[in-house]
Specification:
With 228 residues, the protein is an all-alpha fold. The protein is built from nine helices and no strands. It starts with 6 loop residues before the first helix and ends with a helix.
Length: 228
């Protein structure tokens, strides 16, 4: 493992835990600052007129709102806070890895698998709450005599989702961080040369946060559709 600033406090083995804790503190801090900038009354519903932290949060919420409405449907607005927080938190974790001497928590499979389990529990809870017995019945398929086989297939397919979500995020972030680290290591005086790699790294951070959030939305949409 390459050097990481957080290892000075927690050692090599717990770097991802320390980075995740740092991302949590940053997320909470940014959220509180954005809420303070939001204000109250009419000022809270008027969009930010200039670039600010509040404006960034508004862009995030608006983007997630449109995405949720297009994927989940007319009930999508109910999940905007949930998916906005998911996208923002994963993005902050990813972006920490762009800082020299830092490793993103999302590079560790333990972290990303935990994110996947959270998504798994969330969409199943939503499916059970909205569909009840209809949601459970969809695991058996439409043909009664194929129900035992379909049940096994559906259970395997659902339980694999947290792992695939976690592996996709962790592997891509590991690859991106490794490429940047190797390139910086072979350049004796890295000034302007690594800029394209940093730009590419920022793009990967956004895309992976988007993909994880998008797939979680798809799972919620499928869970809600099971009651029809």
């Amino acid at each position: 493992m390459s050097f990481n600033w957080t290892q000075l406090a927690v050692g090599h083995e717990n770097v991802h835990i320390a980075t995740l804790g740092l991302a949590s503190v940053v997320s909470i801090g940014l959220g509180l600052l954005a809420k303070k900038q939001l204000g109250t009354g009419e000022a809270a519903v008027i969009p930010a007129g200039k670039f600010s932290l509040r404006g960034l949060f508004e862009v995030n919420v608006e983007f997630i709102s449109k995405l949720a409405n297009s994927i989940i449907g007319h009930d999508g607005y109910k999940y905007v806070p949930y998916f906005s927080a998911m996208f923002g938190f994963i993005l902050i974790n990813n972006l920490i890895g762009v800082i020299p001497g830092m490793t993103p928590a999302t590079e560790n499979i333990n972290t990303t698998f935990a994110f996947g389990i959270f998504s798994f529990l969330s969409y199943n809870f939503i499916g059970l709450k909205k569909g009840g017995s209809h949601y459970l019945a969809h695991f058996l398929g439409p043909i009664w005599w194929l129900a035992p086989l379909m049940l096994v297939i559906e259970i395997i397919a659902h339980f694999i989702r947290p792992l695939t979500l976690g592996l996709r995020l962790a592997n891509v972030m590991t690859g991106d961080h490794t490429v940047l680290s190797v390139f910086l290591g072979i350049v004796p005086y890295p000034l302007l040369i690594p800029i394209p790699f940093y730009v590419l790294g920022l793009l990967v951070c956004f895309i992976q946060a988007f993909v994880f959030t998008l797939l979680s939305m798809v799972y919620v949409a499928l869970a809600q559709a099971s009651d029809h």
